[in-house]
Amino acid sequence: MPSILVFGHKNPDNDAISAAIGYAYLKNELAKKNGEDVTYEAVRLGGLPPETEWILSENGIETPRLIEGVGEGDKVILVDHSEALQSAEGLENAEIVEIIDHHRLGGLTTAQPLRYNAMPVGSTCAIVAREFGIEGIEMPKAIAAVLLGAMLTDTVIMKSPTTTNFDRDIIAKTAEFVGVDPVEYGMSIFKCRSNPAELPVDKIVNADAKEFELSNGNKVYIGQFETVDLQAVLGREAEIREAIKALVAEKGYQFVLFFATDILAEGSQFICEGDTEFVNKVFGIDVTGKSVWMPGVLSRKKQVAAPILAA
Amino acid sequence: MPSILVFGHKNPDNDAISAAIGYAYLKNELAKKNGEDVTYEAVRLGGLPPETEWILSENGIETPRLIEGVGEGDKVILVDHSEALQSAEGLENAEIVEIIDHHRLGGLTTAQPLRYNAMPVGSTCAIVAREFGIEGIEMPKAIAAVLLGAMLTDTVIMKSPTTTNFDRDIIAKTAEFVGVDPVEYGMSIFKCRSNPAELPVDKIVNADAKEFELSNGNKVYIGQFETVDLQAVLGREAEIREAIKALVAEKGYQFVLFFATDILAEGSQFICEGDTEFVNKVFGIDVTGKSVWMPGVLSRKKQVAAPILAA
Known about the structure:
By secondary structure, the first copy, chain A, is α/β, with parallel strands linked by helices. Chain A has two domains: 3-191, inorganic pyrophosphatase (n-terminal core); 201-310, DHHA2 domain (Diaminopimelate Epimerase, Chain A, domain 1). Chain A has eleven helices and 13 strands. In chain A, a hairpin with a 4-residue loop joins strand 11 (255-262) and strand 12 (267-274). The termini of chain A are far apart. Chains A, B: Its EC number is 3.6.1.1.
């Protein structure tokens, strides 16, 4: 039976993995209902975040298979991304049959029409949950718990400015169905992230990092680390700075911007290497050689990547 | 009150105009329902096709305003296209807030997330009609008739290979609601297209034509003319050939491919100027200096543009 691969971006975060699991489940149920001879397999392009490991094990859901890339003729569904730079190696040889996403439009082209379902909302998992309703497919409790977890991590428990009324509604409904309080459930998920004092520095820098291409053709790398213990991260600023300086040198990035987000204090500390002047100009700050606290900045997409890409 | 412009592609066909009208209506109703202080205006980037003129007048619907282009800070919704080449002048300065489409992904980028709703189905109007159902907005009969008309022209009365079961279902439901037989209604629409023996040649060549960019960066122009009187079109082959030769010279296209589709005989006659070798190779034909009958070819998107763009 032909199999279609469903995956989120490189350096997957909880939303990328959970959306792939939820959407592959939905598509398999729809295929059964419509008598279509095809299966959908959730896979992943990188390591499992610690909170995802915990949620999957709590709900008895198998970890998606790790793939190295995709090949000629593979049919794929992209979730939680729509930029070639953030996707599987070999994507140009595969056939993209669907995209389900909540990010900006990333410049991909296809030869054939496809299903593209993007919404400017807080998480891809919220869009996946909406599709269950539209298609009239029953959601098992375990899948609901996985989707809810990612709706909460991606919106930083509804504190991120990316959170819409649509997110709040679907989080409330899904939490009621799962039988948990959304804020308590969100806090328990964030707490199972590893202690930043003990993590290898590359796990901090690359925990949730993405490449972007500026309009001048140069690439930049923007990494975010969400934590309930900002001081533990900042205690390692020198190490982090060395690591991102090395990335600039190795990969030729115009700059690497790393920011540690304190989800309780609701702000982020910026650390930047490379063309820091660019970043200074975009945000009206001075991040050259020192780190800068940015109150209220919680969302990479809306508050960090968007102004950089629009500059 | 801020106004958002809703428009289809240049050289608009019936689907491009009708989808803009239907979607602007839906968005205005949704804004009223949600108490949002915004209006949506259907506009157009070119002349009205004769069948659209007839349908709008039959249903008492105002002709969308013609615009020359869009400007800095305009908010826009693209319907029935997603390629900059086919869109409004100045699009790079506007903010695309939504795209609703049934074509391939055309390489646009945005700085901000957006609503993108594409499906690989026969018409954009079918997707617009589906949205009325999902959003629970009542569809007036006049809007239903306009949407139905475009579902029928864009699928060549359900004969085009782009027609899916989804299209057949929504056409049947909408026709029942309007109170017409879909095939009879479709034929009456096609019959009000002008007599190709009497049309100025540029109206034939540009009736439904779009620019595409090949992977080598060259541009091509692919025009389709659907008719119930193929012989009248072919009687003007020499004139058509001169017109498309002039387009190749003026615009620097790698080639211009014009094809006249006989909706009764279900096939198309290809006429090509410029790099005809490219087209010969893609289709395994010899269209150099002569026209070629292609039985079964009804869809530009699926049967003409897709193989050219994939080559």
